[in-house]
Amino acid sequence: MNNGKFLENFVIYHQFTRAYSTILSLISCAIAAEFKRELLILYLLNKPGAMPTTVTNELKHEIWQLLREYQQSRSENVRNQLVKLNFGLVRKEAHYWTNQCHETYDDLLQVGCLGLIRAIERFELSKGHAFSSYALPYIRGEIQHYLRDKGVTVRIPRRWLALQQQAIGISRSWRETHNRQPTDSELAAALKISPTEWQEIKLAWVNRAPLSLDVPVQDGEEGSTCLGELVPDPHYRSFQLAQEDQLRLQQALVQLEKRTRDVLECVFLQDLTQKQVAEHLGISVVTVSRRVKKGLDLMKQLMGVAED
Predict the structure, then answer these.
(1) Which residues contact 136 (CB under 8 A, 6 or more apart)?
(2) Domain for residue 14, yes or no?
(3) Cβ-based burial of 3 (10 A; exposed 0-12, middle 13-18, buried ≥19)
(4) Which domain, by its residues, includes 182?
(5) Are residue 198 and residue 254 in the same domain, yes or no?
(6) pTM, whole model, 2 decimals?
(7) pLDDT tens digits, one per residue of 196-222
(8) Mean pLDDT taken over the chain
(9) Within 10 A of 301 (CB to CB), how many other CB atoms are there?
């Protein structure tokens, strides 16, 4: 760093601390020293590069010493000091993601701090990595996991999300100017898209999260019921019909004479060939064939009578 840059940063730092001189003069010396140290840390973490190199190295050394102490003692107080010293990493990452999602800055700060704590707990001095480079992926990953879990189930194209946000701003301005909500055609024209695409965006936004079948629905005088009970399911109807057919087949099969029923069960339920059935029951293949034909004809008649 050249002398001119050093002088410029030194002046910035003193201008930054001068505003708090009145506060510092009103509190005790010990508290004032601690307050000034906190102020220095905050400034450094939010304005990297704006402090003299010697001060930066002092803080890096302090972080390094605390990391060493934490690895030996696993003290919660030491860990909290490390979080405080590196809080600027979390603020920087949270500020970036605030512009990428709808979550509040405070929520992202809390989630980012969880990532910072995890980085502190897993950091190994023996590997020689810079702690800030090591911690940033943990902070970023924790925020990304949080946003993924909080995100919508149905993925909407990023362009549509951007247009939806623009539409909210346009609607707000339109109400202030015209004292009414804009129509879909007016919104589409303002967004420079077709009315059809705007309808698709609206539909995607409304259906961005699935609706649970267990959600209660008011059912007139009968009280509330689940949505799933009101939604017809053609697959369930097919399953129900198959169950009814199976029951009718069993009832018809029971009415056949034993020999014919045994042959049909071997052929259709056990999937044996007519030769295997003949060997199994000790009859000829011709007899098996005749009993199969006779049994099927009888079952058709029996099931026909059951349908009537």
Answers:
(1) 89, 93
(2) no
(3) exposed
(4) 158-209
(5) no
(6) 0.41
(7) 999 999 988 888 777 777 778 765 555
(8) 77
(9) 12
Could you tell me if 134 and 175 are in contact, meaning their C-beta atoms sit under 8 angstroms apart?
no
Tokens of 229: 């009970």
β-pairing verdict for 224-226 and 216-218: antiparallel
Q: How far apart are CA 276 and CA 288, in angstroms?
A: 10
Q: What is the pLDDT of residue 137?
A: 92
Q: What are the Cα distances from residue 3, in Å, to 6, 44, 103, 228, 263?
A: 5, 19, 43, 74, 104
pLDDT at 187: 92
Count of the separate structural domains present in the chain: 3
pLDDT for 302: 81
Name every residue whose Cβ is closer than 8 Å to that of residue 213 and which is 6 or more positions away in sequence. 226, 227, 228, 231
Does residue 37 come out as left (phi exceeding 0), alpha (psi in the -120 to 50 range) or beta?
alpha
Query: DSSP string covering 113-154, please?
Result: HHHHHHHHHH--GGG---HHHHHHHHHHHHHHHHHHHHS-SS
Q: Of 105, 122, 151, which residue sits at a domain end?
A: 151
pLDDT tens-digit series, residues 179-190: 999 999 999 999
Last residue of a domain, one of 151, 169, 197: 151
88 part of a folded domain? yes
Give the CATH number for residue 79. Answer: 1.20.120.1810
Q: Give residue 6's identity as a one-letter amino acid code.
A: F
The verdict on residue 7 lying in a domain is no
Burial class (CB in 10 A: 0-12, 13-18, 19+), 52: middle
pLDDT at 294 over 50: yes
Residue written as token pair 């010697």: 54
